[in-house]
Design brief:
five-stranded mixed β-sheet, Beta-Lactamase, alpha+beta, Heat Shock Protein 90, Helix Hairpins
Length: 375
């Protein structure tokens, strides 16, 4: 048959066929739904992941693809995708065809037309079990390295302190001078206080029982902190500027957050021996509340910035060229406390310009579908 007698295919038909191949050949499981979450398309990768064919799945509600315990969470993501017109991700525990436990990443994305109207939802699913396993192995390896650093730092500081105490006591024992004995006791007491401070800081890493009666709204904690430190800072020629925007209520253990703010302030004061300005700003940031703590001090050298949250890292201690003892645990404690609270911290600095620490606290919001809504 000559090519003249063959039917001519339109560009639209070619594109449709191409997208169909693209849909079915994707390594991602792709599930399409209408605005109510009812499944209207189900590709081959989804069949393999969920061990279910399209004939079985079309017409079902998409929450079927996750375990029953996670269905409310997926429904919440669907509502957020519909309301915010943004993609959201959820990790799901699942079992494959052999009954082995696997981890899936499910991305919920709205499907919009050119005018921004919602046409439906897409769910992109990928098996991330190997990635999660590697992450756990990496986290374990990093934990072992950190533990080695921590043990080395503890041994180094305690050895120095105990060695000093031994020298004071040995000298006092060889002297009958009451003044010498008194001085030795005083120096021993100071050494014991240093040991106690280091131990208390280390215990913060293991402390997870934040008692309910200590919970306070972060705005209230920040106002109390500003009230406490404003006058002492003024005496050191340090100006305190506080800017608090309306934010959702975030319950935090008040004493722990005061410790975080106190450690950040201690760093700022040491960076501004001649005075300067400390700025604290609280504002909403998407699904989080952001607290920025900055100073106009000497800044942090770029080579030191990646290490500032490591236990026992310090540039202020005598061993590091500083002028007074410092265990280097302040920012490590800050990082540990925030990690236990599910919060995070970022640091930025420029030499001779100052430093800024940005803390992000998660906000728990309950989203419900309005009567007659689309999801």
């Amino acid at each position: 048959m000559s090519s003249e007698n063959q039917p001519t295919r339109s560009i639209a038909d070619i594109q449709k066929e191409y997208y169909q191949y693209l849909f079915n050949c994707s390594s991602f499981g792709i599930v399409g739904t209408d605005c109510q979450g009812m499944i209207v398309s189900w590709n081959l990768a989804a069949e393999k992941i969920f061990q279910a064919g399209s004939a079985q799945m079309l017409g079902r509600h998409v929450t079927w693809i996750v375990p029953e315990s996670q269905r409310p969470e997926l429904q919440s993501l669907i509502e957020r995708a519909v309301m915010q017109r943004e993609s959201h991700e959820l990790e799901v525990e699942h079992r494959d065809g052999q009954g082995e436990r696997i981890t899936l990443a499910v991305v919920v994305a709205p499907i919009l037309d050119e005018a921004g109207a919602l046409l439906g939802l897409s769910f992109w699913v990928r098996d991330i079990t190997n990635r999660k396993t590697l992450q756990r192995q990496l986290a374990y390896a990093e934990k072992m390295v950190s533990l080695g650093t921590l043990a080395s730092g503890v041994a180094h500081h305690f050895n120095n302190i105990i060695g000093g105490v031994a020298t004071y006591v040995d000298f006092a024992l060889q002297s009958n001078n009451p003044q010498t004995l008194r001085q030795a006791l005083k120096m021993t007491a100071e050494a014991a206080n240093r040991v106690s401070h280091i131990t208390e800081s280390l215990l913060t890493f293991a402390e997870k029982d934040y008692r309910q009666f200590d919970l306070s709204d972060i705005t209230e904690v920040l106002l109390n902190f500003a009230h406490l430190v404003e006058k002492p800072l003024a005496e050191k020629h340090i100006k305190l500027e506080v800017q608090i925007m309306p934010v959702p209520i975030v319950e935090v253990p008040g004493s722990r957050i005061l410790q975080v703010l106190g450690n950040l302030l201690d760093n700022a004061e040491n960076a501004m021996p001649g005075g300067g300005t400390v700025r604290i700003r609280l504002e909403p940031k998407g699904e989080q509340v952001m607290l920025e703590f900055s100073d106009t001090g000497c800044g942090i050298h770029p080579r030191d910035l990646p290490h500032i949250f490591e236990p026992f890292f310090t540039t202020r201690g005598i061993a590091s060229g500083g002028d007074h003892p410092s265990a280097g645990l302040g920012l490590s404690v800050v990082h540990g406390i925030l990690g236990e609270l599910g919060a995070s911290i970022e640091a930025a600095s420029e030499l001779h310009q100052g430093s800024a620490f940005t803390l992000y606290f998660p906000v728990q919001r309950k989203l419900t579908c309005e009567p007659g809504g689309t999801a």
